Amino acid sequence: MALATDSVNVHGILPDEISALIVQPVARNSAAMEASTVVDTGVHEYRIPIVAADPAAAWVPEGGEITASDAALDELVVEFNKLAGLSIISRELAEDSSPQAQEIVGAGLARDIARKLDSAFFGSTTTNGPDGLLSLTGVQSVDTGGTITNVDPFAEALSKAENVGAEINTFIAHPDTVLALAKLKTGTGLNTPLLGNDPSAPTKRVIQGVPLVSSPAVAAGDIWGIPRDRVHIVLRQDVTLDVDHSVYFTSDRVAVRATMRVGFGFVHEAAIVRIHDAV
Fold it and tell me: pTM value?
């Protein structure tokens, strides 16, 4: 049955708290959402305007006519796919309206949805889902040759993005790759780590001044440089939360399902840089 405001014994997961239970925790757990521009919308299709070419300026003599020119405009249409998470809980927990029960239900669903969202974002094509970074043909690449011993690949990635007018705000890598980078030292026989720390968040890592985030959804050895303003994750505002007491009737458990519709918008593919072994 669908959750309603007058439903019995489910006060801990009322619809007016869906954002706190599902959307906000997903955003905290998703590396993709952390690195991207997140947009909420109520439209069927989300359109992102793109300036494909700027209008032209020219030097002109005093009193000379100025030649008119127009910008070349394009747009990216973001379509939505449904992403759903399912959590099975005991009836006792479902009937507990304490804040602890809310957090348990919401956290479980949020983790599941965040994992699936990141998997699609850093993957290629997903059945019934959006295409991810590996499906893009216009991204730039930095070849590591299979080994990273210094920050040169990251400096090159930043430069490649700057050459197309973009700025990388986040590097994202697999946790094993992040660990390998964290073990690098500034020189032979030295114990000073090559990676820096964010003074405002000492547990966060930075490379060349850019935050380094880990995600198991990224292929080992790959590092993505993401410019926040060129990558959009668009959420439809019709997030739903449903509770069913019948499907697990014999074990006296309750199914709690959360669904949201989401789409990816890669506005400027050349602004995204993939650091990896290109062989």
Answer: 0.83
